[in-house]
Design a protein that fits this description.
This is MULE transposase domain-containing protein. The protein is α/β, with parallel strands linked by helices. The chain has helices at 8-19, 24-31, 35-43, 53-56, 59-74, 80-93, 120-129, 182-193, 210-219, 232-246, 257-278, 283-296, 301-311, 334-348, 356-379, 389-399, 403-408, and strands at 97-104, 112-118, 134-140, 154-161, 168-176, 203-206, 227-230. It has a 7-stranded mixed β-sheet with strand order 1-2-5-4-3-6-7, sandwiched between helices.
């Protein structure tokens, strides 16, 4: 007869495997029976007096042990607010930057808090790859709960593109229970005012969020205000969604398949023409094309008003004619979207419904360590650098230059230097 509770030796075995850093997938591979064992069990299943111990172990057994061990290392106090504050002290002592504010002024009656964290290595990466370049800012949710089980929490990240690996690095984190601009302002101002960081980026990529845009404008003084760029993908998705509501074809049919086809064709034309406008070569050409675009779509007043009100006033954030500074080929938030997906699928998995201190442990003790190892592998020549489309195009152009033409580009100065 099968025992209802796992024997002590099995529980100890699970504990040891979890202590080795194995998750459910790795442990399941160790427990998998071969075909011969399965056949013997299938033939004698009615006469079994004792089940193999490998069949006793279930996913929740591993989850419970994982959670137990995680809480032991991640929970620095019974109260989660106090636990976060102790994490902040530890990070500061290790040369990083951390701050916790529990009384951020937002809506009346809302107790809004925010906590920002950055290790000493992240600080180096932010200053090395983001200070004079472009950073991506975005948030994700469903990664943990707050001080109470029912409290929603958003994880904000600043991601920079490493010039060493060519990949994105999460260089700073902020956890908050508020959906307002004020927590973001607190975070960005903390990064700007900290004497060890003094972070004022040249450009910030966001996903068209009015909350994030407002926060950036409040966090930096006018003379140090970063250029804000909208993510192409998010912008075009928002525009595409609205085109389905506001653009109608010129078909005389009032209903049916032909009317639907005419609407879809008009919507496609509106989107494609907008992309042409988006890629206008200079500002004068943009203004000319914008006027023509509005005239063309005067037949759809709702669409014309939408473009005129929502997008043209913010042309500098999405039109190529205004992207004159080097942005390292970063035109979307793909680096930060990839980071959020990796965090949830690779690192958190089953542990996505834990407290903020458990999430912080994953961020600082696993995610950041893996990014550090990736940087080292490229530096040591064990891994190749990832190239963006802009990098690949530049390399292709450079490879096409003949040796004689390349030699002609080299200038020998009088002081024997080469430029």
């Amino acid at each position: 007869m099968a025992e209802s509770r796992l024997p002590a030796r099995v529980r100890h075995w699970i504990r040891d495997r979890v202590s080795e850093g194995r998750d459910w997938k790795a442990i399941r591979n160790l427990l998998r029976l071969d075909e011969g064992d399965l056949e013997r069990l299938e033939k004698g299943v009615d006469g079994l007096e004792m089940l193999p111990e490998a069949l006793r172990v279930k996913r929740m057994d591993v989850y419970n042990e994982l959670r137990k061990q995680l809480l032991k290392v991640a929970r620095k106090a019974t109260d989660r607010k106090e636990s976060l504050q102790k994490w902040a002290v530890e990070i500061e002592e290790e040369g990083g930057m951390a701050a916790v504010k529990t009384d951020i002024p937002c809506a009346v009656g809302e107790a809004t808090w925010a906590a920002c964290f950055m290790t000493s290595w992240q600080k180096q990466m932010l200053l090395m790859h983001g200070h004079d370049s472009i950073v991506s800012l975005d948030a994700t949710h469903n990664t943990c709960f707050g001080f109470e089980h029912k409290e929603k929490v958003w994880l904000y990240s600043l991601v920079v593109r490493s010039s060493i690996t060519g990949r994105g690095i999460p260089a700073a984190f902020m956890l908050t229970n508020g959906e307002h601009a004020q927590p973001i302002v607190f975070w960005l101002q903390a990064l700007r005012r900290d004497p060890r960081v003094r972070f004022i980026p040249k450009q910030i990529m966001i996903d068209c969020s009015s909350t994030e845009l407002s926060a950036i404008r409040m966090a930096y003084p006018p003379d140090n205000l970063p250029t804000v760029l909208f993510c192409d993908w998010h912008m075009l998705k928002a525009m595409s969604d609205q085109s389905k509501k506001k653009v109608r074809g010129h078909s005389q049919h009032t209903r049916g398949a032909q009317k639907i086809a005419a609407n879809q064709l008009a919507q496609k034309e509106a989107r494609e023409s907008f992309i042409v406008l988006m890629n206008a070569p200079d500002q004068a050409a943009f203004e000319t094309q914008a006027a023509a675009y509005l005239q063309t779509w005067s037949c759809c007043p709702a669409w014309q008003a939408y473009i005129q009100k929502e997008w043209l006033p913010q042309r500098a954030m999405w039109a190529r004619a205004w992207r004159t500074m080097s942005h390292r080929g970063v035109d979307t938030n793909n680096f930060i979207e990839s980071w959020h997906n990796q965090l949830k699928s690779v690192y958190l998995g089953l542990m996505r419904k834990q407290g903020v201190d458990v999430l912080l442990w994953f961020l600082l003790k696993q995610c950041i360590q893996d990014h550090r190892a990736s940087e080292l592998r490229v530096c040591l020549g064990l891994q190749s650098c990832a190239l963006s489309k802009a990098d690949r195009d530049a390399k292709k152009h450079a490879d096409a230059v003949t040796f004689s033409n390349a030699q002609a580009l080299v200038v020998h100065d009088t002081d024997d230097s080469i430029t």
